[in-house]
Amino acid sequence: MNKLPQTIIILMLALLSVIVQAQEPIAVVVNKINPVDELSRSELIDLFMGKYVAFPNDSKAIPVELKGDHAIKVKFYKNLVGMPLSRVNAYWSRLRFTGRKRAAVFQSNEDDLIAFIIANEQAIGYVPQSLITDDLKVVYILNE
Amino acid sequence: MNKSGLVIRLAVVIVFTAVIVGFITTQLFYRYTFLNEQRLGEQSIKQLYNTVSPTASIASYLGDEELAKEVINGLISNDLITAAAIKTDVLMVKSDNYQESAAMLKFILFSPFQPERSVGVLFVKANEKYLVEKANNISATNTIVVAVEALIITIISIFVTYYVITRPILNISKALHVISPGTRERINKPLSHQKSEIGQLADDVNSLLAKAEQQMLREKSLRNEVQVLESRFRMLFENATSAIVLVEPQGDILLYNQTFEQLIEKLKLPLKKNYGNYLQDLFIMKKDLHEQIRIAFTNDESAVAELELISYQEEKIWVQIVVTQLITDDFQENYQITLHDISKRKQQISLLAQKANYDSLTKLLNRQAAEQHLKQLIFSRVPFALIMMDLNDFKPINDIFGHDAGDEVLIHVAGKLMKSLRKDDILSRWGGDEFVIILPNALQKEVTNVCEKLVAQLSKPYHLSQYNKSVCVTASMGVSFYPDDKLELLELIRAADKAMYQVKKEKSINKELYLAFSSDLAKQANDGTSA
């Protein structure tokens, strides 16, 4: 194997990854042993926007959130509620004044997030489709 | 100021109109204001809703009571809102005075994340009282404004009316009061109304005054003419030498002139309003008057008659009366009666008649007149005695002393004879020295007495002063009686004459004899023939 093809492949992958990052759908995933197989968009909004803290089957749900403003996070909220992240944050800030506490668990990056979901039956989070593993169960695909 | 004056009337009208219009506009404006306020209120409420809707949506979405309360409290703190409530599937948050009713504003709350997903309802009750109050305040202000406006308009209108209309009219009217129509005076046109209706009025008034002046001048000249004419007529009427009287058919006098008045005065009658039909009471022969008038009027002529007036004095007054029928313009029948005094003419005529009937020397009736009297007596069958008298020894007086002395003797004899006779007896100079005496209704005895008296009167000698000589005349008399002796005048005269000659004849034998009766003569003749 010479170095050129490797480089080309790496470049191509990199390019691909960029394309994936732009085009790739976001998957909402849960622990694979979670009995919930599928969620509606409303159920998804209700869980992530703090209306409910339980799955439709009344089992407790823990939304897992990325800290800061990851591209995926921006994209997720943009897709889910049609709002920029700043407004979503403002929403939570307001709720915080009424004494309502957010049930979500924050993870620093996507890997930690995935690890948390795999480790926690009640967890629900969002990942790029490319990062889905067998340990995760996709309950909703957010598309463009 | 005049109660029904323009200014007062205008003020009343304006004030009334202002009150009515003000009332209506205030009501309308109030209604409008109220609705507008309501609309504005709703709009404000909508704006409020817009303000709170994100929070309300979140509260509803999350079913967050605290957040919902915050929204409700925020809403009711506004004056516009009395009550509010948020209702979701799980939550019912409301203000204290919230009551369910239809008059609620209802806003559907949607999920902040899914605009199509309704998550609850926001009920808002608008503060009607506040709106009413606000509307009332605005309306009150408006009412005051309208009232002030009306007041200002009224005052300005009154001032304008007074200064622009009433005062100029009053000035014109005042000027008119002072002006007497028919003069050269005119009213002044108000300076500020040279071309306005009031100016026109002044012009019209002036042209009317001009017309009045013309008219009056014309009338004045006409009146003058009439006056002149009237005075002439009056002069004519009053100075007419004839009495002129205008009477009504019933005899009421409408008009009379001075001459009539003088005539009545002359008759010594009281001046009355009515002297009977056609002044009949003034006349002796009323019947003749009526007859003449009847005849004339049937022939459509003026009646003319000569009649004697009643008079309480010796002088007889005769008039020629002319009665003319007049029909007045209003078809009334009147009579114009003219009385011409013809007394003088009558007098002259009677004087003439006297001349014809009297002997100029002795002033006794002449033969002709005596014959007339005799005829009249015979015609009316009055018995009388006829004495034929002849003077004896008269011819020698005439011959010796001349005719003047004869005439003097004749006058003397006439005077003597006149003295011896009664009032009804008639003495006439029959001719020369012959006299005829008629004694109506006289018996033979009376005749004898009279004759005796006559002879006694004549027997006294008469002194002819011119010749200083006394003369003595005697008379021979023959008498005949009507109707006892003769019926015919001529025969009667002849009989008396015959008796007289018989006396003359027998005088030579019997100096004392002076009288013979025709009847005696006839008896003697009869005796003679019979003897």
Helix content of chain A: 40-55%
> Any low-confidence stretches of chain B, pLDDT <50, length ≥5?
none
**Count of alpha and pi helical runs of chain B:** 13
- Tell me the CATH superfamily of the largest domain in chain B: Reverse transcriptase/Diguanylate cyclase domain
Order of helices and strands of chain A: HEHEHHEHEE
Describe the structure.
- The complex is a heterodimer of chains A (144) and B (531).
- Chain A is an alpha/beta fold.
- Chain A has a five-stranded mixed sheet, sandwiched between helices.
- Chain A is 43% helix and 19% strand.
- The longest helix of chain A has 21 residues, at 3-23.
- Chain A has a single domain, classed as 3-Layer(aba) Sandwich (D-Maltodextrin-Binding Protein, domain 2).
- With 531 residues, chain B is of the alpha+beta class.
- Chain B has four domains: 6-134, 2-Layer Sandwich (Beta-Lactamase); 191-234; 246-347, Beta-Lactamase (2-Layer Sandwich), CATH 3.30.450.20; 358-530, Reverse transcriptase/Diguanylate cyclase domain (Alpha-Beta Plaits), CATH 3.30.70.270.
- Chain B is 54% helix and 19% strand.
- Chain B has 13 helices and 16 strands.
- In chain B, the strands form four sheets. In chain B, strands 6-5-9-8-7 form a five-stranded antiparallel sheet. In chain B, strands 11-12-10-15-16 form a five-stranded mixed sheet, with helices on both faces. In chain B, strands 2-1-4-3 form a four-stranded antiparallel sheet, covered by helices on one side.
- The radius of gyration of chain B is 68 Å and the shape is rod-shaped.
- Chain B starts with 5 loop residues before the first helix and ends with a helix.
- Classes of the chains: A alpha/beta (144), B alpha+beta (531).
- Chains A and B meet through helix 2 and helix 4 of A and helix 1 and helix 2 of B.
